[in-house]
Every structure is written in structure tokens, then in C-alpha cells.
Amino acid sequence: MVSQVRVSPPATLSHSARLLAHPLLHTVEGTVQVFTSPHRTFFTKVMVQAMRRAGQGDAVLVVQFLKGGIRQGTARPMQFGQTLEWIRADLSRCLHTAEVTDAERETIAQLWEETQALAQSGQYALVVLDELSLAIQFGLISEASALSFLTTRPSQVDVILTGPEMPEALLAIADQVTEFRRQFLP
């Protein structure tokens, strides 16, 4: 005769907390991936990865800090399928230089605050921060704030950072760094 003793977690824990308390179940730690290139033409490669994850049922958030022109903002995210939300800054134009108006600066600050809150909610498995390095270079988002976000996000959330000339501090904590280069053959 074989017997097994099973100790249940306290009933006061939530259902998800009881599941996580199981010795065979654990949360997989999320990764930080960096995609960088001197050219701003590789976003489709990142979107393929985001769409693949969304197609597998993971909730994905894509945030474009410097793209505008469609009057979108956090109040009107685009929804692709059931699991991919895409937010662009509520700007009348796309930003290509550090020359921005106070209103544009405020719009990016609001988008960054909302992005952090959405990521901290834990509802997304993947968060893509497009052209984060340029937003940092243009003085729209502080490097310290980006580092704080990456180190305090829910542990299971994967993050993809994109942009040219990614700050060394962000590269240092990345799990994977991919550099896209164009090679012209003779």
C-alpha cells in the first residue's frame, strides 16, 4: 500500500498564489532583449516576434515613443487580434531629432508613465519599447527611469528595447543583444 501526504497552501491565498506555491510550478523569469541598428528600418523584424507571441496567446504591448501622426495616444490603442495592443504617442508628427516642443515632451512623459503602469500590471507577457534609446538620447525619458523600469517590472515580463546607440547601462542588463547591420557587397 502506498500513501501520499499532500499539504495544501492556506485557503487565504488567492487561486494564482496557491498555484505558484506548488513545488512543481514556478514562474519563468522574463528576459530583456535589445535590438539595435544604426538604421531605423528594422522594426518589422521586432513586430514579427511580437505578433508570433500574440499568436501563441500571450498578451503583448508595443509602444512607439517617437512615432506620431495618427492622433492615437494611450486612450486609443490599436488592437491586433485579441492579445496585441499597439500604442503610438499622441503626436501630430514623428520625431526625428531632439528638437521637440514642450507639448510633445509632455506627451512622451505621459506615454512613458502609462507604459510603466501597464507593464507593472502584469497583464502583458511581452512589452516592446520601440526607439527607447532615441527617446533617452533626446532627453524625453531618463536612462535612470528606464533602468528602474527594467529592474522593477514583474519578473515574468519579457521586454524588447529597440533603437540605435543603446546606452551601455541598458546593454549591460540585457539577456540578448542583436545588432542589425547592412553589408553592401561589391
Overall form:
globular
Please count the beta strands (DSSP E, at least 2 residues each). Answer: 7
Mean pLDDT: 83
What is the highest CATH level, the class? Alpha Beta
Uncertain runs are: 5-9
Arrangement of strands in the largest sheet: 3-4-2-5-6-1-7
**Order of SSEs, N→C?**
HEHEEEHEHHEHE
Named at the architecture level, the CATH assignment is 3-Layer(aba) Sandwich
CATH superfamily: P-loop containing nucleotide triphosphate hydrolases
Tell me the count of domains.
1
Question: How does the helix and strand content classify structurally?
Answer: alpha/beta
**How large is the radius of gyration?**
19 Å
Helical fraction: 25-40%
Structure explained in plain terms:
It is built from six helices and seven strands; from the N terminus they run αβαβββαβααβαβ. The chain is an alpha/beta fold and 186 residues long. The chain has one domain (28-179): 3-Layer(aba) Sandwich (Rossmann fold).
Overview features:
186 residues; globular; 6 helices; alpha/beta; 17% strand; Rossmann fold
Task: Offer a quick outline of the entry.
The chain is an alpha/beta fold and 186 residues long. Helix content is 33%, strand content 17%.
Topology:
Blueprint: H1 15-21, E1 32-36, H2 43-55, E2 60-64, E3 78-80, E4 84-88, H3 102-120, E5 126-130, H4 132-137, H5 143-152, E6 158-162, H6 168-173, E7 176-179
Parallel strand pairs: 1-6, 1-7, 2-4, 2-5, 5-6
Antiparallel strand pairs: 3-4
